[in-house]
Amino acid sequence: MLSQKTIDIVKSTAPVLEVKGTEITSVFYKNLFAAHPELLNIFNHVNQKKGRQQTALANTVYAAAQHIDQLEALLPAVKQIAHKHRSLGVKPEHYPIVGEHLLGAIKEVLGDAATDEIIQAWADAYGVIAGVFIDVEEQMYVEAEQKEAGFRNYKPFVVAKKVKESDVITSFYLKPQDGDKVPSYHPGQYISVRLTIPGQENAHIRQYSLSSGHKEEYFRISVKKEAEFNPNGIVSSYLHDNAEAGSVIEVSAPAGDFYLNEENNGNKVALISGGVGITPMMSMLETIAQTTPDRPTAFIHASKNEGVQAFRNDIDELMDGLENGETCYILENPDNVSLCHFSGYVNKEILATYVASDTECYVCGPAPFMKAVIMKLKEIGLQEDKIHFEFFGPAMNLSAVDEKEKVRA
Fold it and tell me: How far lies 330's CA from each of 279, 295, 370, in Å?
């Protein structure tokens, strides 16, 4: 339990953390990895290079300072981060290491302004916050382990099949090497894939949405191959070019808090995606088709052209099995306009055709795409609790997404 004095000191640091937060977290990660290079086997190197991880942590620290006297307000964010941590394999023994270097970074950046009293207050606060994360994550580890066919950490899976879905997306069917079944999951959740790539000093971890409804025999992920010059392409290129039937890769148990609400089956649902953001939507759509085919459903997908659009035949077949299904394909530069309902970009008029104010909307895709879609959904009249979305990688502030970027898949 924190003293009122500690709470007051921590809250008083919020304004400076708002300004200096990213500088502090950048120093933190630099010092952390210098002292503990083994932790590079857990963190996504690309998010580090892009500064996204630093910004995400800075936002979390700032929020903690603001709400240190009401940590329950942070619980939704804690759970979202805890899902990521559990899927990455973060352990309780990592938290003291992080705390040491976070306090050191605060002192290094703020200098004399970070008095002994402030550092001690933050040490006390960090201990409480870390305890919350450790408890929530342990509950998630136990839940993952106690499921039928569940497991706690990473487990070897064999690539059973590899299927090309478009010019840039390939599906990998992953079966447990031990011959067991796979645990159940919510449609929309993801798994982590951990690879040891020849020539790379550290392991690389990426999180991929499960792209089919639950099957007892396998997980399916559908991976977009990034350009070779893109650092994010290290893992996707390796999977596309080197993973074949029989290849063994390490996989985490399913995680994530972005998934279809299967209890509210009466409400219309709209699955809205751009590019490879289609992958969790395929899991949701297949689940609806299998369990509640009478549920009104709109499937709205935007992509650059026909060549990069995945799952067209699968979507059409699943939608044909629904009693009240609507499909909308939007292509930025179609080679054949008859193959899409609209050409160009997603706009308010298109969304209003398929979405009413009480529709449950699920959105996934590149950040500029999501920003535009979410803004337009709110203009239509949807409340925030009707709009569910997921970022690729660390959570971002939508308001910080570049308005000038083209909104396409």
Answer: 16, 23, 15
